[in-house]
């Protein structure tokens, strides 16, 4: 068990990548706070994890709400005995060209990804620093932390911003034994991607199949989607890594899409 007795908070854990990561963390012996804006889904998932013997608690958390973040992280620390790992993963996609995007949509996507990344990181760092037993901050970036695609401007900007947060936390956290790393997935068929396939295909005037092969997966090495378990395996690896040899890094998990 690579995460035996560790305590983790995973945001956006009721669906997609967050759920896969939470499941893998439980398998590796961690106790996990299942934080999501969708409380009913978080509760159902936490109950399922407990039924199979895991230690999981559901948290109502909109990551843009400072009070909910502070209280949610505090509840996990109190119930499970501190905080060792954060996976700041909550997110959504919004499709619009920069010339068309409303200011409200721009601000909302930056808020969920960047304010959410900051607030959850700050809350967990304070526990980690106080506890004095180190920790791992894992931020969910994207290949869009390193390159752009049309119609995804606010998302691309937000994901680039998380690279800066990761690198800063790596430097500041080092004195406290806290590492910070960014996972940069390629396309994974979660609800986030399933909803954007028809929308983007329609905008581009092509079929869903063309969008997948000629746009989404065009520059992978093998034309394959990344899987949620690929991402979960990397999250376990980063969470369990024993030293600061691996900090401040951004790791593409994308079938070779973007090698930077
Ligand atoms: P998903 O839609 O399956 O899950 C996202 C979860 O985040 C949902 O449970 C949702 O309720 C929650 N959420 C949304 N806004 C929230 C908020 N304000 N506070 C708390 N929870 C909130 O999506 P996913 O594909 O699993 O995406 C997870 C993360 O991975 C996102 O940050 C996304 O940008 C990133 N990512 C996904 C892909 C992909 O291909 N799926 C690729 C690169 C990066």
What does this structure look like?
The protein is α/β, with parallel strands linked by helices and 260 residues long. The chain folds into 2 domains: 208 residues, NAD(P)-binding Rossmann-like Domain (Rossmann fold, 3-Layer(aba) Sandwich); 37 residues, no CATH class. Helix content is 48%, strand content 15%. The protein has a 7-stranded parallel beta sheet, sandwiched between helices. Strand 5, helix 5 and strand 6 form a beta-alpha-beta unit. Helix 3 packs parallel to helix 4 and helix 4 packs parallel to helix 5. The protein is globular. The mean pLDDT is 97. The site of nicotinamide-adenine-dinucleotide has 29 residues, from helix 1, helix 4 and helix 6.
Task: Supply database-style keywords.
Rossmann fold; 260 residues; 2 domains; binds nicotinamide-adenine-dinucleotide; alpha/beta
Q: Strands, helices and their partners?
A:
Layout: E1 7-11, H1 16-27, E2 31-36, H2 39-51, E3 55-60, H3 66-80, E4 85-88, H4 103-131, E5 135-140, H5 153-173, E6 178-185, H6 191-204, H7 208-216, H8 228-240, E7 249-253
Helix pairs in contact: 1-8, 3-4, 4-5, 6-7
Structure at a glance:
With 260 residues, this protein is of the alpha/beta class. Helices cover 48% and strands 15% of the residues. The chain has a 7-stranded parallel beta sheet, with helices on both faces.
